[in-house]
Design a protein that fits this description.
Elements lengths: L9 H14 L3 H16 L5 H12 L5 H44 L3 H29 L4 H15 L4 H18 L1 H5 L4 H6 L2 H13 L3 H26 L4 H13 L5 H16 L5 H12 L8 H12 L6 H33 L4 H30 L10 H16 L4 H18 L1
Helix pairs in contact: 1-4, 2-4, 2-5, 3-4, 3-16, 3-17, 4-10, 4-15, 4-16, 5-17, 5-18, 5-19, 6-7, 6-17, 7-17, 10-16, 11-16, 12-15, 12-16, 13-15, 14-15, 15-16, 18-19
Length: 438
């Protein structure tokens, strides 16, 4: 990078975070790639080093890492309110879009026009994930020793089915030890001191980091605010709907799920589906699968699928309310408790994580984690790509429409460098046109 990041006004950042909420397609890989392209490469709001450092921390947390990365960057630029705006608008558009799709799904079932749009969006999303993988891989794997970590992570998660948390822990340990033994292979692309000098984002966040680090009073205030924001709605819901009602049970269950969502949306969906389908009988297995398909093709975190589960649970069990009212309350409850902890993970931990940037051995550990994430993203690209391009199974005839659209979308994104939102919208329009002309 020849020029350092520049200072950013709050109003300018606000406009960007609102826009990001509408274009954040592609799951975590695509969303991280969009922020990499916009905030590091084009706008230069944050340095590459700082971006990867923040990403490594977010990958350690339960919950949607891309949204947490947005919160982190928003906090770096403009403090607490910057983080609140970035994190909130990352999901607000998808809340309303998925609510509308869920209502159509629940009321009308399979609509040909909607199915056609989804058929066009999915190949575009596959292309977005692959383009993201290439771009992030080029930057995160520049120290040659990290390539082995990425390959090992892919083999572990794809072939050996090693749980995601163990991959992260293992990669961090490998990075830490290798950074001490083979510093050139694991640290040569991270000149912290030189980059710090050229990083205005450091100037914007250094003062608040120094004030926040080691401040027990600040940690207590954040903790109390979190308890109030979680406990207040629960109390109101229990008094209004009854403590044994579906919506109170949803509030408690999805709060628990929010703290065990290591491994991404696919992992948490398996956990939630087991409970919602087998234990509570809120939804059917087929509905859970359909919800994942809708969430994969809407902007925002893939974990938004939990909102669909909450919506369908309320629709199937209205408990004296109208179906739409019960479903909407279920969606609201589920979404609120799923994303609320994300803000507190960042506001509590970010100042301490920032202070670790000068610790080269710890930075090497985070570099190992970042390399492992490249392998994990490759796994997601393979799994999702196979599902879209080979719907009948690997080795069967591929979906030629999906294959052609994926290649065209990748060329538009990677070579023509078109904006992701136009590529995704074009994919949906082509899918709709194809469905209507059949």
């Amino acid at each position: 990078m020849t020029e350092g990041p520049r200072n950013v006004g709050f109003a300018e950042a606000f406009r960007y975070w609102v826009r990001l909420g509408f274009i954040s397609f592609g799951g975590p890989a695509g969303q991280i790639a969009i922020m990499q392209r916009d905030l590091v490469d084009r706008r230069r709001w944050i340095s590459q080093e700082r971006f990867l450092h923040a990403l490594s921390y977010c990958m350690l947390l339960p919950g949607p890492e891309a949204q947490q990365l947005a919160i982190y960057i928003g906090w770096l630029l403009h403090g607490t309110w910057g983080g609140v705006v970035a994190g909130a608008f990352f999901v607000i558009p998808s809340i309303f879009i998925l609510w509308g799709l869920s209502a159509i799904y629940a009321a009308y079932g399979s609509v040909p026009a909607v199915a056609g749009i989804l058929a066009g969006l999915k190949p575009a999303v596959v292309a977005l994930v692959v383009a993201a993988l290439v771009k992030i891989g080029k930057r995160a794997l520049r120290p040659r020793g990290l390539v082995a970590v990425a390959v090992a992570a892919f083999v572990g998660i794809y072939l050996l089915h090693v749980p995601f948390p163990w991959i992260v822990i293992g990669a961090g340990l490998v990075g830490f030890l290798a950074g001490r033994i083979w510093q050139r292979e694991f640290s040569e692309a991270r000149p912290l001191a030189g980059l710090e000098e050229r990083d205005p984002a450091s100037e914007q966040s250094r003062a608040r980091t120094e004030r926040a680090r080691g401040s027990w009073s600040r940690a207590v205030k954040i903790g109390l605010a979190g308890l109030l924001l979680w406990g207040g709605p629960l109390l109101a819901l229990g008094l209004a709907r009854g403590w044994s009602s579906l919506h109170v049970l949803q509030y408690r269950f999805f709060t628990q799920a929010a703290f065990v969502t290591f491994g991404g949306a696919y992992a948490v969906l398996a956990y939630v589906t087991q409970a919602a389908v087998q234990s509570y009988h809120w939804i059917t297995q087929a509905q859970a699968i359909d919800g994942l398909g809708l969430a994969e093709t809407t902007p925002g975190p893939l974990i938004m699928v939990l909102q669909f589960v909450g919506f369908l649970s309320g629709w199937n069990h209205p408990e004296g309310m109208s179906r739409l009212g019960s479903a909407s309350l279920g969606a609201l409850v589920t979404t609120y408790v799923t994303f609320l902890p994300c803000f507190f993970y960042i506001f509590l931990g970010a100042p301490y994580v920032e202070s670790l940037r000068e610790k080269r051995y710890l930075t090497a550990a985070l570099s190992g984690i970042t390399a492992a994430i490249v392998g994990v993203i490759l796994n997601l690209a393979v799994v999702f790509g196979l599902a879209v391009l080979f719907p009948a199974g690997w080795g069967r005839v591929s979906d030629l429409f999906a294959l052609g659209l994926t290649l065209a979308a990748f060329a538009a994104l990677y070579f023509a460098k078109l904006d992701a939102v136009w590529v995704v919208l074009a994919g949906g329009a082509i899918g709709l046109a194809r469905a209507l002309l059949r």
